[in-house]
């Protein structure tokens, strides 16, 4: 099977940069297009009066989007500099991360999703969930999960 359009889902973690390296190698080998994307989601504030925290949430979203756009631009420039012919970026707002990734893959007509996994295990995985695991379980597309080499969770 040929992967002509790679959806590369990144966040601000070091494992995302390992996923970038894998996506780059695959894109160069197959002459694929890459769309690099991030999801900016708001976590619900349970038991907090929204009107008191609204300015903080607005500022958080502004900063999160600014940081995501900068990170995506840096990754895009690096991939182009390394020879990937077509690299686009996309930011998804206000959706749970797995939902945003899957909707972007469908909207863009991606052939494969590449993303990192933080490698959480045990209780932390249960409590925090795993975006990579959710995408892998639901996606109709192939998903390449790049796992962290080190497991610092105990």
Automatic annotation (TrEMBL):
Keywords: Cytoplasm
UspA domain ranges (all copies): 3-147
Gene3D superfamilies: HUPs (3.40.50.620)
CDD domains membership: USP-like (cd00293)
Subcellular location: Cytoplasm
One Gene Ontology CC term in the entry: cytoplasm
Main localization of the protein described in the UniProt heading: cytoplasm
Any Pfam family hit: Usp
Keyword Nucleotide-binding attached: no
InterPro entries from the UniProt entry: Rossmann-like_a/b/a_fold (IPR014729), Universal_stress_UspA (IPR006015), UspA (IPR006016)
Family named by the database record: Belongs to the universal stress protein A family.
Name of this chain's protein: Universal stress protein
Organism of derivation: Acinetobacter wuhouensis
